[in-house]
Amino acid sequence: MARRGGWIAASVLAVSAASIALGRLKPAVPEVEWSTVWPDTVKRGPMVRQVRGIGALVAEETVIISAVTDGRVERILIRPGTKVNADSVIVILSNPELDQLTLDAGFQVRMAEARITDLNVRLRSETLTYRAELARVEADYAQAKLRLDRDETLFRESLIIELNYKLVKATAEELWRRVLIERERLDIRAESVEAQIAVQRSEIDKLKALHQLKLSQVEALRVRAGVEGVLQDLPVQVGQKLAAGSIIAKVAQPTRLRAELRIPETQVKDIVIGHSAEIDTRNGVIPGSVVRIDPAAREGTVTVDVRLEGALPAGARPDLSVDGMIVVERLSDVVYVGRPASSHPGGVVSLFRIDPDLKGAQRVRVHVGKTSVNMIEVRDGLRVGDQVVLSDLSAWDGHDRIAFK
């Protein structure tokens, strides 16, 4: 019985000792496939700080075509993406009321022209009456002047009395004054005729201008591009009723494009107008420079305009999605390495430094200086020549060391 108790006590002591030993063992080092690791080497030298943004190409000049008058969309002749010239008819509108107003305006012009013809006839007739009266008065004066000349001779020879001579002279003088008055009336009449004709012509000009306006509005129902380019947008449908001023289409000139990049508002503070940039269209890279920075942020980003300064690659067109890199600073002599995930300027990032024998890696804390799109400045924690793992190893956050297999 005593022997059995001894065995039990020995077993308990053995189990306790094993438990303590197991508790003191370090957790096993996890193994990672080397082929899944993205390594990089710490270097020293110049580093270019860049800010990345995505966006699209937009036309430098976009012509917005709006409805000149109310109308209903009857036909759509050209769809977005089609090249157009100035005379290309994009949409045909209809407006029966405008057609009727144009017809009425034409009739009013013809009626006004008929009125001025009638006025001319009446004024010429009245002018002839004035001339006839002047001719009659001039004839009377001529006869009175002859009698005056005759009686003046007789009076000098004392063949008639003075009273008769004075009566004839007074009659002649009165007729001369009437001649002068009739001549003045005829001159005034001529001015009056010109004024009346001018008023009527002005009325005709006004009616013609109104008619021409209606004709131009009717012509504008055939909506034309107005410029050479590419039809970019057509936000109308057949049967849709449009009010005057409604946007019908947008025409862009594809040979003059700029890039609009959306930059995170936390990074845009380093960008200034004039910074150089590269725009990747997926079919070529175009150099450019920053020309505008939007003062307002929208949904966490700020729009930055980049003027393109190189030849456009094939396929470049408005609304084409692009990537952009803007150079904000060139550092001449710094220690740098590829940028790992979740790193930010002035922060601390945890990286695995690869052993020289490439069999494992040890976790180290790296103090980050300035950052770029693909690189970070190393302030502390790594030396030139060290190799680190840049790929995401967040699955091993609880381990300070990993092994490669």
3D architecture notes:
The chain has 405 residues and is an alpha+beta fold. It has three domains: 29-58 and 254-404, Elongation Factor Tu (Ef-tu), domain 3 (Beta Barrel), CATH 2.40.30; 62-94 and 222-252, OB fold (Dihydrolipoamide Acetyltransferase, E2P); 97-220, Orthogonal Bundle (Helix Hairpins). It is built from three helices and 21 strands. It has helices at 2-24, 96-156, 162-220, and strands at residues 31-32, 39-41, 43-59, 62-66, 71-76, 83-84, 89-94, 222-224, 229-233, 241-242, 247-252, 257-264, 276-280, 285-298, 301-308, 321-338, 348-354, 360-371, 375-380, 387-389, 401-404. It starts with a helix and ends with a strand. Mean pLDDT is 87; it is low at 21-25.
